[in-house]
Amino acid sequence: MAGIRCFKYAKWLLLALILWLSLAILYLTLPPGECIDDSASFAQALWDGRSLQRVYHTEEFIPREYRLPRVRRRRYLGLKYAYDRHSGVLRIRNEDVPLFPLLSPLSSTPSETSTSTPTPQHQPQQHSKLVIPWAKLGDTDGVNPPWFRTGDAVLLYSFVSREWGRILLTVERAPPPTSPDAENEEIVLHVVPARMATQREGTEDDAVPLGMPPLASLHFLPSSEGEPPTLVRVHFPPQPQSFGTSTYFSARYALLSVLAPSAMFAMALAELAGQLVKLLLIALGIVALLWIARELWMYRHEGDAEEREDARERQTAVLRKALREVLGPLYAPPNGGRHRERAARTLSDEEERFEPKEEV
């Protein structure tokens, strides 16, 4: 019965292995796919409530001195964008940025009193507060073959390695156009790298743009009164500064979400088995050392016992010889009481022989 159960388990394990290998072959043989960079399609996706993922070459947008330590370790970072047209909130990964204050006419047209007095370089209505979203970090190697698109490779690498880093951003409004038809012109918002403001420039929540190229540009058209502006175009930097996902990214992500956990589980089991074998070998080594130490101790103590016995016999022989020389016939050898009685009788006879007799 035990053999039949083991055969059944081995059969299911073999089927699971064949299925895993089939999925792995499918993952590796998928074609590279095409990356569609269409600003109108991007805008329609965000307007419909869908999200967009974009991968950036870090050195092109964030200077090294403004990168956090985690971001410095990888060449690429990935951000996810989503937009709620009802609330006017732009979500960058885990940070929400209200856009209505930036899209309102008051934020772009200064008043008459403000034109007569000098305004600071970074006006609060010209850009949002400092946002610090989490960005996916990755490279193009790892689980990715060379023919994968850069955007797919970086996001899949980050999915397996689980590497994240925080970057400092702000959303600023582009300068208003000077044409007479400014009311019908597009309102452009740029997502740009920033730094934290100093005490002279503002509070810790205020952002100071770094003057680097924007990560994304959102183009809005003013709507009728009471309606929010309409998102018409979303522009991302071209390659090799930024990369989009291919048409096969969803399929690759679904396959990897099955392959990676199972592979990690198998690797964890193999590592656990290796640790158990290592502990077993260490235990066997300790037992062998204890056995060798015991044998050496017994051999040494047996030799010491024999040496002590020999020394005792030598001491006994020397003592016997000394007793013979001192006592002479009085020395009774250790062969029994008969020798002692004979020696005592001989001694008494000799004493009687040499005892003087009294004359009458």
From TrEMBL:
Superkingdom assignment: Eukaryota
Transmembrane segments: 12-30, 276-293
Chain segments carrying region Disordered: 107-127, 329-360
Biased composition range(s): Basic and acidic residues: 343-360
Record keywords, A-Z: Membrane, Transmembrane, Transmembrane helix
Protein name (database record): Uncharacterized protein
Native source species: Calocera viscosa (strain TUFC12733)
